[in-house]
Amino acid sequence: VAISTNLLHATPFIKNTLRHSRQLLQPGGALVVNEVLVTNAFAQITFGLTDGWWLFEIDPERMRGNSPLMSWEHWRSLLSDAGFQMACPMRGEGPLVQQAVMVGICSLTTRRRRAEQLAVHMAMSVD
Fold it and tell me: How many helices (H) and strands (E) in the chain?
């Protein structure tokens, strides 16, 4: 299990970040992502003064926004693209409505398929 709280958004290329996160997990492992979904004036003033806040500007996935934060749907899509199977996506209510916890399960079949492809490639290289 890998747990991230309001961290993954602060990376320059979110697709790479999620792919690397997935590579850290064993088949069937879980990535628990807790992220804020929308920005506000306080966050912009506070975190906007840090270099890390602006790393998203070169990321094609987030260039159109005014912050590194992404919508619920965008997170779900990116996790799926990185090979995670979604389980237990939850959004907050009341004062936590702008917060989400998403759990991505590392697919067993994708890892098996990669291993099989590697075995075939290695067998062909031996011949």
Answer: 4, 4
Per the listing, tokens 């990321």 go with: 59
pTM flag (> 0.90): no
Q: Give every residue of the chain whose pLDDT is below 50, as ranges.
A: none
Supply the pLDDT for residue 12.
93
For residue range 17-26, what is the model confidence (pLDDT) as tens digits? 999 999 999 9
Contact 106, 83 (CB under 8 A): yes
Residue written as token pair 């088949």: 27
